[in-house]
Amino acid sequence: MPYSRVSSTTALIDEGNLTQLEFLALDSTFNFADGHARQELTASQEKIIGDLPELFAQAASQPVAELERTAFANYCRLLGQHSFPLDAGRVFTCYSSSVAMEIVARSLATRTDSIALIHPTFDNIPDILRGVGLRLVPLPEDELHRRDLDPRLLDDVESVFVTTPNNPTGRVLTADRLRRLAGQCAQRGTVLILDTSFRGFDSRAFFDHYAVLEASGCRWIVIEDTGKLWPTLDLKVGWLVTSADTGLPVADIYSDILLGVSPFVLALIGRFVEDAASGGLGELHRFIAGNRRLLRSALDGLPRISFPDQESRGSVERIDLGERSSSRLVLEELCERSVFVLPCRQFCWANPAEGDNAVRVALARPTESLATGAGVMREVLARQC
Ligand code: EGV
Q1: How far, in Å, is the centroid of ligand 1 from the Cα of 327?
Q2: Looking at residue 325, what is its pLDDT?
Q3: Among 73, 122, 348, 383, who pairs with 354 as Cys (CB 3.0-4.6 Å)?
Q4: Do 181 and 147 form a contact (C-beta atoms < 8 A)?
């Protein structure tokens, strides 16, 4: 087991990283830990799965470059990213967004030594960036949304990394904020990196980011991800997309790690994109909104419980547990009853105590299992009042 370092669940809750906690939950019926898509297939998605043998044959016969371009272009158009680049050497298809991130991190580390990173965010991002030796400077989410970046912060780093919509808060960087941020980066030669893995859930993030970035003249990298949207058993891709000249050895480092992803996965993703474009995306948004309402109403009226991310449309929901000593007891009790959610401590990578009173629940799950799980959450939380 990769998490053999720590033995008990309690130790994992305190010392483990979020993915190690997600491993624990993998085979549980009430796995509300990881943010991957585990809802049931819709009727039209079932049809695609029924076509797998033909898809396999198609993937084997078509040039990979063509499959790649079609899947990427259609994915971008689906989510409003019309100014996506298609030039050679600007789009790199990866197994996952974390692999894309690792390639970005290694590229950055050859030329730079410091990076500002949004706070909070999923802990494998700071871990990957630290793993290549970068010095991390927290960029508090509130500040990012409130005003231009402090020039002293920008003077202190050579790149800026922002997840939008953010995980776990769901907050979306507006077009205006992105324009200002990219402008600031352009002025100083700072590389701007966006992780847009949760974009598909939130139409407020469908404005054309590539148009804004290109107009700013800054050096930029965007990581797109299909992995959170559709229940494809983790068959997915992450796209690493760059400005024309990043001054970073992205292509070389990509080639150190990958030749490319399976054309079968690209063909499958291509079909899910088509399905999403013909109504599936709206259906997904309604599904997540329904599960969010279900969770909120299942816990309604419990003292001190609140939902801090009122505006979020992402596939995860934070629950603030209020003034209970910490979320640990709640997590332990839930875990004893085979219900797994994540602590928020680890998302607060620069100041874990900030996340002590909150947990994160994954919403991309079958509604019935979420309903049962939410019932257990209610019992546990009511007892702890
Ligand atoms: C989420 C899993 C990795 C990550 C889950 C995630 N961890 N890649 N080490 O994909 O929000 O649960 O992003």
Answers
A1: 20
A2: 61
A3: 348
A4: no
